[in-house]
Design brief:
globular
Amino acid sequence: QVQVAQSGGGAVQAGGSLKLSCTVSGLQFDDYVMAWFRQPPGKEREWVSTVNWSGKSSWIDGSVEGRFTIFRDNAKNTVSLQMINLVPGDTAMYYCAAAYSLSWDKSYYGPSTTDFQYWGQGTQVTVAS
């Protein structure tokens, strides 16, 4: 049974920092592409960042580039999203997602939610102005 457990998040003032983490069990972690998505209040879920199976390549949306960093630790089956200089527009529910890499034929930049097989439960990030 695959489990995707998220941690981190919370409420911060604008300019603050947060780190989100996601630990995956029940699958061969380094066979999976990992990504972070977010869903602002009243909006659709949107892609934030992707990291390939090895962690050596990553892609990030322009709206958070330079402020958010994705990284993974295959020895610990974790993927994290470090967020700095947060702004109120970053307020959203954040989700990590896993997709089987050996059959990955999608773009790493801006993939669809339907490209991912497993999802975390979501964690709230709230940034106050």
